[in-house]
Structure formats: structure tokens, C-alpha cells
Specification:
Elements: H1 3-26, H2 39-45, H3 58-67, H4 78-98, H5 101-113, H6 115-120, H7 130-147, H8 157-176, H9 181-194, H10 201-228, H11 234-246, H12 255-274, H13 282-305, H14 313-316, H15 321-335, H16 341-356, H17 370-378, E1 385-388, E2 397-400, H18 401-420, H19 425-448, H20 456-469, E3 476-479, H21 484-490, E4 493-497, H22 504-512, E5 517-521, H23 531-537, E6 540-547, E7 550-556
Parallel strand pairs: 3-4, 3-5
Antiparallel strand pairs: 1-2, 5-7, 6-7
Helix pairs in contact: 1-4, 1-5, 2-3, 4-5, 4-7, 5-15, 7-8, 7-9, 9-13, 12-15, 12-19, 13-15, 16-19, 18-19
């Protein structure tokens, strides 16, 4: 087979992956916006938020307010999807550049099929797909230069072009969000290691100067951006980051909330993306070192340097998707070749058994107090449903904690066992692959369709249609903002309500004077015996619909 055949074959397979990628996203495109997601159409609409309201560098507002306004306020998921599709091709090109065609296919397949990637590619924000686009562009230029040992010359036009690509990727990412500095730092650190800077004091001083010059360049870039994008609120952007830096002392931070959100990101990433790291050898480490440095830099930044306990930390963790897809893709490409039937029979049987456990009765704990479901975890009472939700999505859905725990335990045992028994490495990786596919499949199914535990999206659509058509309903408080955007479109939205203990005194005042209706889609569950439950029990139910473990009610609280 000649080279042209391989190129044609590559093109066919990447097109197949792109088609699968798009098809998996079709069901997500018109899912109701959740909580902070619908701020973006509001920015574009201009009625609630004036230009310059977004506290990020100007490309973010340019993408969502200016470009987004031309595609319709209900179609904003097309923006991250478009960037996600571009990322699929960029990822294939980059992985092929570093490792070769086989890893490129594996990495692209992981990017196209894993839940965390699909969530990132449809969440209306910039962390999941817009930022990775510029990261991938920067990496392509960087690895092209790395192949030539970073030899620059005015006569080497090609290297100058790739240097320009690096600068475009770095500047573009930084102009989307200040955290765009993270991949710049990671690649610069890899460059210093490649050049052996840390073993030479003179080189340390020399390249420290280059680093300082680069930092000054980024500051100048922000100042110049104000001239090109006059709506850019530079002062507001600086103030926004001061909030995360000074919100609390290091020991006084919301470490428990940080841990919960980080744990949620780990559950999203799944064993399929995380556990192949156990099998990284010297060759993969050396080739993928910039991605490990990026992961390390990002984790230190988000978990320790700033306090993101009040932010959407699980959303920020979407930066992990691209590097993990490349690293895990390299592991699967290296160790999964021809698979024998006997190597897949036992993992498939285990997968079927674990999958079937979801259909036994599960307890549905309330979100508060969190000690209740933590107690169930530590006491091994795992037959309960864990709720996945977030400030910028996803729309809430349930997954069996028992199912998740057993998949993680099985795959972790396999990965750790390989430290002591090298001869089972291939069997372990194949088993992790099969169990990981099952895990991601269940997450995708519950997120998109909710056939096992309930579909929040359908309940939102049906209940808001009732609100729209009922002339007696004039103002609506929305529990957990489940359906907030849809109620806003009816013109009857009053405010959102979070049934948390710390806001109880505030809501006693609000609800004490409230004369209207409440849209109550009970995911997550409200604490039994709480003020919120007692108040809503005192209202009249004028609409009710149940789907599996989730119930939607419209409550008349005018009396």
C-alpha cells in the first residue's frame, strides 16, 4: 500500500469520527440552558447586560455577544460545537505529529466519544472548547519547532511561520481568558527543560529575562486590546481576578467545596481518560511531557494559587480533556493491538453485571446536608443516586453511585496490579478500555436521555409549556434554576431559588412576601423537614409530572 492510500484512509476515518462526533452532539444542541449558561444569550441580547459586562478579555465577548447574536439566542450550543469539531481535526493533526497515525486515531476517538469531552463541547462557555482551540494551535507550532531543536534564522522561513503559529495560539488564548497563561507557562517550562536551562546559572538568568519580556508582552497585549475592542472592561477584568486571589485566607478557603467539585471533574473524566496514565512509559512521557506539565500547572493554579471554591471549578477542569485524550490515546495505541476473544470475555461479563445493578432500587439523598451522602459513601451504603449539576451546566441528571464506584474499583485494582505483575498489562488495559466505554456510555445516556433515572430536559420543556399557556401564572420562582431560561422566555420569570442552609434567612424574607408560583423540578432533592420543603408543601400543586426518580411541579403559592 502506497503513501497516498494511507492518506486517503486517514481522511476517511477522521471524517467518520467527525460524523460520530456531530451525531452524538445533535441531542445536546437544544438541551435547555442551565444557570450561568443562559447569561451568554443575555449578553448577546443586550437587554439585561450592556456591552462590556463580561469580566474576561475581549475575544470571549466578541465570540458570544457579537457572533452569537447572528445565530439565534436558542442556538448558542452551536458555538462550542463548532470549536469542538475544529479541535477534533487539530487534535488528530497534533497527535499524528507527535506519536503517529495510530495514536492520532485513538486520541481523536477518545475526544469524540468520552462524556467529559462531549459535555465540554456543548457547554455554553469558553473553557471546554474555545480555550483548547488556541492551546492546540500553540502546541502544533511548538512541536514543529521542537523537531528542529528550536533553530531560528531569518533564512529559515518555515520555522518563523511556526513561531508565528505559537504566538497566535498564545495571544488568542490569553485574549479569551486570563487563564490562557497556563498553557504558555507549561510550554515555556518544557522549553527550558529541553534546553537544559536549570543546570546552567547563566541560562537561568537569560531565559528568566525572556520570561519577563513575555509577561510584559501579554500585559501590553491586554492594553492594546482595549483599543481594538473598546467594549473590553480592563478594570473589571482585573477586579474579577482579585476576587479569586483575596476572597479568603489559604486555610479559610472552602476546601470542602473545592474537593467536591474536583472529585466531580474526576468522575466526569472517567477511568478511560485517567487510568491509562498508570501505563505511561519513558517514551510516552518524553513525547507527552508538555501535556503533563500543562496538567500539573493547571491543577496547581485552580486548586491552590487561587480560591475557586465559589466558582464553577468542575467547568474549569475541562482543560484536562485534550491533554488526557492525547496521553491516554498514546497508551492505548501502544498496548492495544490484536485482542483475543478470551481477553474480552471476562471484562464484558463484569460490565454487564455492573450495568445491571443500576436497575435495583436506589435511595435519592438530598443535596444538603452533604454529610448524609458522605456518610453513605464511608459506610459502604452505595445504593444511592449521585446528582451531577453545575453553575454552567450540565442540566441535572442522576447516575448510580454504586455503578460508578464498582467501575472505578475494578479499573483501579487492575491498574495497580500491573505494578506488581507486568505480564497482565495488556489484559488490564483492555479491561479498563471496556469498562471505561461502559462508564462513559451510561453517563452519555443519562445526560442525553435519562432512560434509567429520569430526563430533566423533558420535564423542563413540558412544565414551562404549561406555565406559558396558563394565563393565571404571572411570576415564577424557579428552584435550582432548572428551566430558568425557558421561564424567562415566557416573560414570567421572577428569580431563582437555591434551597441551601446558608441562604435560608434570605429566602424566608423573599418567600414571606411572595405572591406567585414556583417551578419545582426536584433535582437535587430538598432536605426533608427543611424550611423550603415546608413552604412548598403549603402551596397548591397545579401541575405535576414524574419521570423515573425526578418530579416536576408547578406550585401555586399565592395563598
Amino acid at each position: 500500500m502506497n503513501l497516498s492510500f494511507f492518506k486517503k484512509k486517514e481522511l476517511i476515518w477522521i471524517i467518520v469520527l467527525a460524523v460520530i462526533f456531530v451525531l452524538l452532539h445533535l441531542s445536546v444542541l437544544h438541551l435547555p440552558y442551565h444557570q450561568d449558561e443562559y447569561k451568554w444569550p443575555q449578553y448577546a441580547e443586550g437587554k439585561v447586560f450592556a456591552p462590556g459586562s463580561i469580566p474576561h478579555p475581549p475575544l470571549t465577548e466578541f465570540i458570544y455577544r457579537i457572533i452569537g447574536s447572528h445565530i439565534g439566542l436558542d442556538n448558542f450550543r452551536f458555538i462550542p460545537l463548532t470549536f469542538g469539531l475544529v479541535n477534533l481535526f487539530l487534535l488528530f493533526y497534533l497527535a499524528n505529529l507527535i506519536f503517529g497515525r495510530k495514536t492520532a486515531f485513538w486520541s481523536s476517538a477518545l475526544f469524540a466519544l468520552t462524556f467529559f469531552s462531549i459535555l465540554a463541547s456543548t457547554m455554553v462557555d469558553v473553557d471546554g472548547t474555545v480555550m483548547p482551540t488556541f492551546f492546540l494551535i500553540m502546541c502544533i507550532g511548538y512541536f514543529k519547532l521542537k523537531r528542529t531543536n528550536f533553530q531560528f534564522s531569518i533564512f529559515n522561513f518555515q520555522n518563523l511561520v511556526w513561531l508565528a503559529v505559537v504566538i497566535i495560539g498564545a495571544a488568542g488564548g490569553f485574549l479569551v481568558k486570563v487563564s490562557g497563561i497556563l498553557p504558555i507557562c507549561a510550554l515555556f517550562l518544557d522549553f527550558l527543560i529541553e534546553k537544559g536551562v536549570f543546570s546552567d546559572k547563566k541560562k537561568i538568568l537569560k531565559y528568566a529575562g525572556f520570561g519577563l519580556l513575555g509577561a510584559v508582552g501579554l500585559v501590553v497585549l491586554l492594553l492594546l486590546a482595549k483599543l481594538v475592542f473598546p467594549f473590553f472592561p480592563l478594570e473589571k477584568s482585573i477586579g474579577y481576578w482579585k476576587h479569586f486571589a483575596n476572597s479568603s485566607s489559604f486555610l479559610g478557603r472552602g476546601w470542602f467545596q473545592t474537593f467536591i467539585q474536583f472529585a466531580k471533574a474526576i468522575l466526569y473524566a472517567s477511568p478511560l481518560l485517567l487510568l491509562p496514565v498508570f501505563f505511561v512509559d519513558r517514551e510516552i512521557w518524553q513525547k507527552a511531557r508538555p501535556f503533563f506539565l500543562f496538567i500539573f500547572t493547571g491543577l496547581v493554579f485552580y486548586l491552590f494559587v487561587f480560591d475557586f471554591s465559589l466558582g464553577a471549578l468542575d467547568r474549569y477542569m475541562q482543560f484536562l480533556v485534550v491533554p488526557l485524550c492525547i496521553i491516554s490515546g498514546a497508551v492505548f495505541a501502544k498496548f492495544v493491538n490484536y485482542v483475543k476473544n478470551k481477553e474480552i470475555i471476562i471484562p464484558i461479563i463484569i460490565s454487564i453485571l455492573i450495568f445491571s445493578l443500576q436497575f435495583f432500587n436506589h435511595f435519592v439523598p438530598s443535596l444538603h446536608p452533604k454529610a448524609e451522602w458522605l456518610s453513605r459513601i464511608f459506610s459502604l451504603k452505595w445504593d444511592f443516586l449521585y446528582v451531577f449539576s453545575g453553575g454552567s451546566g450540565p442540566l441535572p441528571f442522576y447516575v448510580s453511585f454504586l455503578f460508578m464506584a464498582l467501575v472505578w474499583i475494578c479499573t483501579l485494582v487492575l491498574a495497580i496490579s500491573c505494578i506488581f505483575k507486568k505480564n497482565i498489562k495488556k489484559q488490564a488495559i483492555v479491561s479498563i478500555l471496556i469498562l471505561g466505554i461502559l462508564y462513559n456510555g451510561v453517563f452519555l445516556e443519562e445526560y442525553l436521555f435519562g432512560k434509567i433515572n429520569g430526563n430533566t430536559a423533558n420535564l423542563v420543556r413540558n412544565s414551562t409549556e404549561f406555565i406559558k399557556n396558563d394565563a393565571e401564572i404571572s411570576k415564577v420562582i424557579v428552584y435550582n434554576d432548572n428551566g430558568g431560561w425557558e421561564v424567562r422566555k415566557t416573560g414570567k420569570y421572577e428569580r431563582r431559588m437555591y434551597a441551601t442552609p446558608q441562604f435560608e434567612e434570605e429566602y424566608k424574607k423573599v418567600l414571606g412576601n411572595f405572591n406567585g408560583h414556583i417551578l419545582f423540578i426536584d433535582i437535587p432533592k430538598i432536605q426533608e423537614g427543611s424550611f423550603y420543603e415546608k413552604y412548598m408543601d403549603s402551596c397548591e400543586t397545579v401541575y405535576e409530572e414524574k419521570d423515573k426518580t425526578i418530579t416536576a411541579k408547578v406550585l401555586d403559592c399565592r395563598k
